[in-house]
Here is the input.
Amino acid sequence: GGEEEEEEEGEDFVENWSRQMDLENQNERKRLDEGLTSSKASSLKESIRLAHNDLGDYYYNIGDLKEAFQCYAKSREYGTSVKHTLALCVNSIRVALELNSMAQVLLYANKGLAILKNVDQQSAAGETEKKMAQRPSIIQQAGGGIEGIGGAGENKEEQNLTRAKFTCAAALAHLHFGKYAEAAKHFTSLKTEIGHSYAEVISQQDVAVYGGLCALATFDRVQLKKRVVHENFTFRDMLSTAPEMRDIVEDFWNSRYPQCLSKLDVIKKELLLDIHVGKHVHKLFSLIRQKALIQYTKPFSALSLATMASAFNCDSVENLEKEIADLITADKIRARIDSRGEKILRAKEFDKRMETFEHVQSTAEKFVENAGEALLRSSLNRLDLAL
Here is the structure.
């Protein structure tokens, strides 16, 4: 009897709490609707914009995401500055992500990045004009930088943080659509660390993991050096927040492919549960493994598949042979498999003499073309016919 009474009390508590929350939500909505009506009567754009934003926040908090998205969209026509437009983009992205509407996420992220790029260009133009004319430019007279263009009132650090948020959102959209190269470029192009400032969407550790995986799957060694390993200090600092990913990237860069793939397997189960990268794990891991196989074979003119299978911890030589054959068919490995006796992977031999001859011929043709253009210019100048 005691358990039944406790269960009934629990149900009553939940029912009363739910009824109270519904009543509070109805009162809050009534208050916000009245505020919007009052703002429209006053015809003040800023007041109407804030009223739509407040309604959007209300619907977002109660979980009515579609209505929240519409409210934020309605605030667009009442915005009067760059800051208002950027706020619209940030709010729309936040709701679109939860609606899983990645096309809208990409749309508003690109819009925000385009606005910030335009702000940078106009600010730079204003600085140049100031230096040349030694007088305040129109932009600086209006307040300088982003304030002068739209009254955004953001300092450079806040502006960079806003740009980082848009970049992360665009990267997530590209990841969703399976455009791993674009996602990698966006994740590794961040100029500032986001820390916990965008925690409702993505953490700095997530940026390191997603960016690292996409980079390993799509970047060549030149791009890895420039964007991930050596020259990109911002992303290197982000990798330090994800030690497992940092070790994987270092192993791949230093050609320790078996260790790299082994460490990937360790974090695979956890990644499969991730809301953004989970459905892409198998594809990304496959692309990383293919790149590892391709780069492992490059230095060798002849390589035993048995040795390679041992290095990559393959179940059998036959399985590795099938992987290599697929890569050869796709023209990603320029070699052939000698299946007689011990299976050997032999690199295709190229006619160095013919290659050198073609290079010399191409250089000679280019020289003749340049010489003809030089003679023509000389003749035109001598006859005073040059413009």
About this structure: The first strand starts at residue 302 and ends at 304.
